[in-house]
Amino acid sequence: MKTNLNDIKIEIDRFVDSNKSFFEQIDFVIGMSRGGLIPAVLISTKLDKPLVTAYINKKDEIFFDRPEWIKDKKVLIVDDIVRSGRTMYLLKRYLEKNTEPKDIRIYTIYSVASMRDRDYQIMVSATEAEEDVIFPWDYEK
């Protein structure tokens, strides 16, 4: 399934508008580099919440911007898609161990149920997609 920026904005607006009380409690938005940065910027701007970034390389090394900012805070991790769930699982465990946030929630625009690995049990708010999704930032791949 191929998406465009308008599709992404519609999904984000729908999610944020239907969960206003939840978002009022969020202190920080964490954008997962690379694909989650655009959705995270849209969400943090819409909510007027600060944004920090996280990156996981191919060796599963995690680089996190400003960990001291989120201690005892309620955070929302944003990515574009959950396929296996591994990236979100690794980041959530890292944050719990190293930054001690008060609460961690995860939002991705899409989740591909057929690709989810049951070893990575994480709660994700997302629109379920029947097939993999191609985002505008991935068109050239």
Describe this structure in words.
The structure is a single chain. The chain is of the alpha/beta class. It has a single domain (5-131), classed as Rossmann fold, CATH 3.40.50.2020. The protein has four helices and six strands. It has helices spanning 5-17, 20-24, 37-47, 86-98, and strands spanning 28-33, 51-56, 62-64, 74-82, 103-112, 125-129. Strands 3-2-1-4-5-6 form a six-stranded mixed β-sheet, with helices on both faces. Helix 1 (5-17) packs across helix 3. The longest helix has 13 residues, at 5-17.
What is the gist of this entry?
The chain has 141 residues and is of the alpha/beta class.
Average pLDDT over all residues: 90
Sheet-strand content, in percent, reads 25-35%
Question: For the terminal residues, how far apart are their CA atoms?
Answer: 14 Å
Q: Sheet bearing the most strands, described?
A: 6 strands, mixed
Give the overall silhouette.
globular
Q: Could you estimate the helical fraction of the residues in percent?
A: 25-40%
Strand order of the largest sheet: 3-2-1-4-5-6
Mind telling me which CATH architecture this is? 3-Layer(aba) Sandwich
